[in-house]
Amino acid sequence: MNSILPTRRLFGPGPTNPYPEATVALGHPLLGHLDPEFIARLDRTCEGLRQVWGTTNARTLPLSGTGSLGMEAAFVNTVKPGDVVVIAVNGLFGERMCDVAARCGAEVVRVDHEYGTPVDADRVADAHPSPAIIAAVHAETSTGVRSDIRALGEIKGDALLITDAVTSIAGSELRADDWGIDVGYAGTQKCLGVAPGLAPFTISDRAFERRNTTPQSWYVDLGLLGGYVGEASGGRTYHHTAPVAMIASLEAALERVLAEGLENAWARHQAAGDALQAGLQSMGLELFAAEGHRLAQLTTVKVPDGTDSAKVRSYLLDHYDLEIGGGVGQYAATVWRIGLMGPNAHPASVTLILGALEDAIKNA
Ligand code: PLP
């Protein structure tokens, strides 16, 4: 599923470890995408997504593509050529936002932050007096840092706020409406514990009304996608063939997360991350992300001097069926990224990874 989920073995063979219900749903006989049963399923999925986003936005839906499609959709639907878009960059996915926004004709104003540190809302506010859009990543998977999106909502003024919640959704507190998020996109493969392939997406009425009505994308033009999710006025119309198996899987995972309780799921991720980070530090390892802003679901840790990062990662795969990620960009060989997401945010995963990593550092 995700190259940084560390527990192949605990949750079954192979590199994907969704919740069991989500896996089973993938194998159910397929419903036609216009079958009323499927349409009811899509409705339930959109409603479940509203809950995990913390929104009442009518336009909340799973886009048919990965998290990056969500990012494309966010920018192509909101940016008009020449718009000033202030983007907080504190990792790879903020960088990607700049690329996507520039391709939409935005005048991108980057606010660069040192990797490993959170977004500074004051610096974002000072970057431009009247941006059309402000954008930031809530949970930077490349660096293991959580940023304060509520603070950006407080300083956004008249701008629209775009938020990447790919790694935070269902794993960290996320309250789109309370925090002033106008457009949000996420992925299924992280804390929702579903295979990759859908992008949970939400857009407020305010942002929809201000959208670019002639985006260069046909596929994710939200003006056209209304019929796909049966917006009241036009009824349900064909737009593209819904990925029915993936939506069944997402629905099953959402049911599970909501039955657990969203706040309980956040707390479970937090407890697992805290335990992992305490354990790593007691092994003498140093964490990469700034204290107080560390993600629980994705821990970044510095590779100890004299240790070969790649050898340790191969050893973990070969001896423990565990996959951890390397660092990103200049940190490729000096940082490890350890994910504890969805079903893997569990004490057993923490015990396993700590023991396995200790062995690997000594013996790889
Ligand atoms: N944003 C963040 C924070 C991510 O972690 C990722 C993927 O890991 C993406 C965007 C892109 O999502 P995808 O790889 O599903 O296209």
Secondary-structure blueprint:
Blueprint lengths: L19 H7 L9 H18 L5 E5 L3 H12 L5 E6 L2 H12 L3 E6 L8 H7 L5 E5 L1 E2 L4 E2 L2 H7 L4 E5 L11 H4 L3 E3 L13 E5 L1 H5 L12 H4 L18 H17 L1 H21 L15 E5 L6 H12 L4 E2 L8 E5 L7 H17 L1
Parallel strand pairs: 2-3, 2-4, 4-7, 7-8
Antiparallel strand pairs: 1-9, 5-6, 8-9, 10-12, 11-12
Helix pairs in contact: 1-10, 2-10, 5-6, 10-11, 11-13, 12-13
The structure holds pyridoxal-5'-phosphate.
The site of pyridoxal-5'-phosphate (PLP) has 12 residues, from helix 3.
Keywords:
single chain; 364 residues; alpha/beta; Aspartate Aminotransferase, domain 2; Aspartate Aminotransferase, domain 1; 2 domains; 7-stranded mixed beta sheet; 13 helices; 14% strand; disordered N terminus; binds pyridoxal-5'-phosphate
